[in-house]
Amino acid sequence: MTSSTIAFHPAVNLRELVARRVPGYSLEAPFYTSPAVFDADMEHIFSKHWIYVGVSVDVPEPGDYMTVQLGQQPILIVRDDDNEIRAFHNVCRHRGSRLCAEDKGTVGNLVCPYHQWTYDLSGKLIFADHMQEGFDLSHHSLKSVHLRNMAGLLFICLADEPPADFDAMAEVMTPYIAPHQIDNTKVAVQVDIIEQGNWKLTLENNRECYHCTGNHPELTVSLFAYSYGFAPKEETAEGLRQYEEMVADRHQHWESCGLPSTEVERLSDVSGFRTMRMPLDRSGESQTLDTNAACKKLLADFKDASIGGLSFWTQPNSWHHFMADHIVTFSVIPLSADTTLVRTKWLVHKDAVEGVDYDVKNLTAVWNATNDQDRRLVEESHHGAKSKAYQPGPYSPFTETLVEKFSDWYIRRLGAGLE
Fold it and tell me: Domain named Rieske: which ranges (predicted)?
């Protein structure tokens, strides 16, 4: 089956592709290379599920806004005068011009640059000059987008009826995330990378650490070998037992301090997610080159920097790492079948002073290196998927189980959309 065939008969052939997917194996090449599959991904995955887009402190004050582009849909996120964060389609109700073109900014009201139609921060049209007598401003408010703020993590959904199970995820995850107090942080650094590869390859790469030992020397400094890319063998059984005992002991201690830590995995839910707080190796304070805290001013009211790293993954487009001194949060936004935006934010305490409490180079060193290494891996995989020699390969039953769970989730959700 070729990409051109899919383009002519997308509905029939997409269903065939979904139906013949073999569990335990990577996806067929068109899932990574076909523009028709990309269009289906945007329609059935990114337009119907909760998509992580940023943090509450991206818009810290009333009038602050940020913009996000999901496929052809420009979205505007703004904090209103009542300190509520809202999301709208970034489209004027007059003749469709984008209201805000910048990634971030601050406004008093939302004024269309074309004909100056003006909206307040709640989305209500409050001024439209040169319209007929009796023109009803109230019938032309901005079109809202569903937004949920989960302990400072912002998710939007473009569907008329968004998945209701977000509430279940929020109920579980809020106690895990809230102690890190995102609302009392600031975005110290944001780095955007454009990967020349399909978004699913980015997610698959993130969902395993089979590749970490040979590719991520900076990241693995703070990770225990038994916590990633590990296939149990008889000669390593004792080391694994000791690691598991240490994890159980740390979890008991952290939970006694009010930090939920035990693993929760619901990757097959419509709003799939997974979380766990894991010990960090060596000094055990942070994901840095020396594993010491990158920021002297710890988050929230933490007194001890050695609280491990809380990891949180969501389907289909995010992962996050929460430590005592800083937070690293990642979002994946598809741009085309062949290009993907990976956006990384580093958050520190809002009162931390650059050059005094933290050094940007040290704060970002591990994940800047890791992101660049992952970009190369994704791009090489994308090149390979375009080869006529490519065929789906088997996942490791020890180190790629989460890749299979992502692929299974994706196939089931795409299939549900096609039906």
Answer: 52-156
